[in-house]
């Protein structure tokens, strides 16, 4: 683009004129010279530079800063990295931008990047000249430091209140804090007997003849226990030459006893614990890709099931698109037509060519093949709850799996009641949801036989962003079902916004949001999962299919398997059973429904109210402390909810910000960490992992928690040492 150039006028020349007059005789008169002064000309300031140049803009630890450069032409910002924002994108003359950094968008899970950088690309034009320049923007991350210490395995040895040190490395010794006294073994029976009852020593009581020196040595051993405040009542004979000395001052007692020549050894009376049971790992072909179950602690739950405590039969109604009864991985897991299964769809074009009937099969129809060639939503949801374990019937496909996947129920007597209410186009009406919920709960519905197997749990992986007023029929039915004894679980919605989805937002429903793997010990909120006040719980629903991650570590056909939920499905193109990876709150809701069913089957809970209370009380609190719209009360924890036995006993760090983002800095050999993080408020949890899921400090697991703020005013925060007990 051409630019205007100021017009410059030349200076006028000074003219001297000689005027001549003619007279007869006077002498000529010479007039004074006439000076002609030129008109005044405006002065124009010097122009700015006629081109832009490359530069670096360093924000340091500030949230924003200025990027400036003198210029006399026009410019525009062609590229701004996602984590940066600029105050203007075009202008004329000098460039003067405010650049703001959103460090969270560039935060590394490993929290190991000290400085961020990104390039602003500017194009410019001045007269006939033009060009492009790069302004590199850098921003320093903030620093959070601390230490995680396993208090049950090691502690600093303290003498007179001072830590013994060797250089800068602390000497660590076995923990004494949990020891229940001291066990001492004497070198001779005479010494053992001399100190046992605290009586005055003499040759008669000892029953033997001793030299004066030996007698005095025994007397010193007996006096030592008295000085330590260990009365005869606190001395227990363990047989042989050993005593248990009951004292809370373990360290001083050990030091004194080990200096006694009559003592062979003295050791803490350490507390031993039941060894962790090995988690159950299914052998089904694709079970290794079902990362959600280990994340919720199901390895411990399935070990618990092998003890036989899950005895109460439970029905979970899945109100969905129907199910493929002919999927071999669901054989024996479903209530059949004639046993309560129902198809409530009566509208023409629903896909099966008939009206309301007792066959909720997700049909193979031209519409299904055309619209959803490789999907049966209801079959996928059902498999999460109840897919069978072990060998399945052959399906006549040489390449097909002979074992497939597993469901949460394993050995528990849980059956799914399929109710078809979603048509082949994926649509469902308010009326059909209302009718289905009432039927599933065993309530009377006109023109329909009463359900012979009323559900204790109802799953609704469906919904829409409608108003509360329009949702009233569904909400009324859910409230009636709750009163009748059924806990109704519903998907919170995949809108990725804060708009409530119904029926999940109904007051009597349990709204379930979705989490996915983060690459750190704690999972994170799935970006597609709607977040609003009615969200009560979260469960694994998988990664965003539009930007999939693959932190689960599994591979399929040589490629990394995405962090999606693998379950039973149906291939309508080939008309044969299949296994599908899907993601959404539709997959998170049945995880909660399955756990609710297991609580009832084991007898941990007996009603919708105490089942929901147990789910909330044992959930792993993620993100900001307490209940929040993203996670509700947190991610369900099957092992804690069901009091499953410990299957691991490691100590580690869980680090999250108030937005729910997870980080995993490395712990060095002494448990110290340095995390390079964006601005924000951070929860630092040091804790145990007792259920093999790699998430530390959940309900029922020892932990110590602190918080720290980072930002321009506090670029460095040290949370100190977090000690994890038993």
What average pLDDT do the residues reach? 88
List segments where confidence is low: pLDDT < 50 over at least 5 consecutive residues: 1-47, 154-175
Structural class: alpha+beta
Helix content: 10-25%
Largest sheet: 8 strands, mixed
Give an account of the 3D structure.
Strand 28 and strand 29 (559-560) form a beta hairpin. The strands form eleven sheets. Strands 20, 21, 22, 23, 24, 25, 26 and 27 form an eight-stranded mixed beta sheet that branches. Strands 1-8-7-3-5 form a five-stranded mixed beta sheet, with no helix packed on it. 17% of the residues lie in helices and 27% in strands. The chain contains 13 helices and 37 strands. The longest helix is centred in the C-terminal third of the chain and has 18 residues, at 585-602. The protein is an alpha+beta fold. It is flat, with a radius of gyration of 39 Å.
Q: Layout of SSEs?
A:
Blueprint: E1 55-58, E2 64-69, E3 74-79, E4 84-86, E5 90-92, E6 95-101, E7 115-126, E8 129-140, E9 142-150, E10 155-156, E11 158-159, E12 162-163, E13 165-166, E14 169-170, E15 172-173, E16 182-186, H1 189-196, H2 203-206, H3 212-227, E17 235-237, E18 242-245, H4 250-258, E19 263-268, H5 292-295, H6 298-305, E20 314-320, E21 342-343, H7 366-371, H8 377-386, E22 414-420, H9 430-440, E23 457-460, H10 472-484, E24 487-491, E25 510-516, E26 524-525, E27 535-540, E28 555-556, E29 559-560, E30 565-571, E31 576-582, H11 585-602, H12 608-618, H13 638-641, E32 650-657, E33 662-663, E34 672-677, E35 680-689, E36 703-710, E37 716-724
Parallel strand pairs: 1-8, 9-37, 20-22, 20-23, 21-22, 23-24, 24-25, 25-27
Antiparallel strand pairs: 2-6, 3-5, 3-7, 4-6, 7-8, 9-34, 10-15, 11-12, 13-14, 16-18, 16-19, 17-18, 25-26, 28-29, 30-31, 32-33, 32-35, 35-36
Helix pairs in contact: 1-3, 8-11, 9-10
């Amino acid at each position: 683009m051409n630019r205007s150039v100021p017009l410059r006028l030349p200076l006028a020349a000074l003219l001297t004129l000689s005027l001549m007059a003619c007279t007869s005789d006077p002498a000529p008169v010479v007039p004074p010279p006439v000076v002609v002064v030129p008109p005044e000309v405006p002065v124009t300031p010097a122009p700015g530079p006629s081109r832009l140049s490359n530069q670096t803009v360093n924000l340091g630890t500030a949230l924003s800063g200025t990027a400036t450069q003198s210029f006399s032409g026009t410019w525009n910002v062609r590229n701004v990295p996602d984590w940066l924002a600029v105050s203007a994108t075009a202008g004329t003359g000098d460039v003067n931008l405010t650049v703001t950094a959103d460090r969270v968008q560039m935060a590394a899970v490993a929290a190991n990047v000290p400085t961020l950088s990104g390039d602003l690309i500017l194009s410019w034009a001045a007269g006939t000249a033009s060009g492009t320049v790069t302004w590199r923007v850098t921003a320093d991350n903030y620093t959070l430091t601390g230490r995680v210490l396993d208090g049950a395995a090691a502690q600093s040895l303290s003498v007179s209140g001072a830590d013994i040190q060797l250089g800068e490395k602390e000497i660590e010794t076995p923990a004494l804090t949990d020891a229940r006294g001291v066990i001492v073994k004497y070198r001779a029976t005479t010494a053992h007997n001399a100190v046992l009852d605290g009586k005055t020593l003499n040759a008669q009581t000892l029953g033997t003849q001793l030299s004066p020196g030996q007698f005095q040595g025994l007397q010193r051993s007996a006096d030592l226990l008295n000085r330590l405040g260990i009365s005869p009542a606190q001395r227990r004979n363990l047989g042989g030459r050993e005593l248990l000395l009951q004292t809370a001052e373990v360290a001083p007692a050990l030091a004194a006893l080990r200096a006694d020549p009559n003592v062979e050894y003295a050791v803490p009376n350490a507390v031993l614990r039941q060894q962790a049971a090995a988690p159950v790992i299914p052998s089904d072909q694709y079970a290794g890709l079902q990362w959600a179950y280990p994340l919720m602690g199901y390895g411990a739950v399935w070990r618990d099931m092998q003890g036989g405590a899950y005895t109460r039969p439970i029905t979970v109604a899945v109100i969905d698109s129907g199910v493929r009864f002919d999927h071999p991985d669901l054989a024996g897991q479903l209530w059949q037509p004639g046993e309560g299964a129902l198809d409530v769809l009566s509208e023409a074009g629903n896909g099966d060519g008939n009206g309301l009937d007792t066959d909720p099969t997700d049909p193979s129809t031209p519409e299904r093949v055309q619209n959803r060639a490789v999907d049966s939503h209801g079959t996928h949801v059902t498999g999460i709850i109840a897919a069978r374990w072990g060998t399945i019937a052959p399906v006549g496909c040489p390449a097909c799996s002979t074992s497939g996947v597993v469901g949460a129920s394993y050995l528990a007597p849980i059956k799914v009641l399929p109710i078809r209410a979603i048509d082949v186009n994926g649509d469902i009406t308010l009326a059909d949801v209302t009718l289905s919920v009432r039927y599933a709960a065993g309530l009377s519905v006109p023109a329909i036989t009463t359900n012979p197997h009323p559900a204790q749990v109802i799953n609704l992986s469906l919904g829409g962003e409608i108003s509360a007023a329009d949702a009233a029929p569904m909400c009324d039915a859910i409230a009636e079902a709750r009163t009748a004894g059924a806990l109704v679980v519903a998907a919170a919605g995949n809108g990725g916004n804060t708009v409530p989805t119904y029926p999940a937002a109904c007051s009597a429903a349990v709204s379930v949001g979705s989490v996915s793997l983060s690459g750190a010990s704690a999972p994170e909120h799935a970006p597609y999962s709607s977040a609003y006040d009615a969200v009560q719980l979260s469960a694994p629903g998988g990664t965003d299919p539009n930007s999939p991650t693959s932190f689960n570590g599994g591979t399929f056909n040589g490629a990394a398997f995405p962090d999606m939920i693998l379950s039973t499905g149906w291939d309508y193109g080939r008309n044969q059973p299949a296994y599908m990876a899907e993601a959404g709150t539709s997959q998170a809701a049945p995880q909660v429904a399955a756990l609710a069913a297991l609580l009832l089957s084991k007898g941990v809970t007996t009603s919708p109210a105490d089942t929901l209370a147990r789910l909330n009380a044992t959930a792993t609190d993620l993100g900001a402390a307490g209940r929040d719209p993203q996670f509700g009360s947190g991610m369900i924890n099957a092992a804690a909810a069901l009091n499953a036995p410990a299957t691991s006993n490691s100590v580690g760090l869980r680090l999250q910000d108030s937005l729910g983002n997870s980080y995993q800095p490395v712990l060095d050999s002494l448990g110290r960490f340095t995390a390079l993080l964006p601005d924000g408020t951070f929860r630092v949890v040091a804790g145990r992992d007792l259920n093999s899921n790699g998430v530390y400090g959940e309900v029922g697991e020892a932990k110590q928690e602190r918080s720290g703020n980072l930002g321009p005013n506090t670029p460095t925060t040290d949370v100190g040492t977090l000690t994890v007990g038993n």
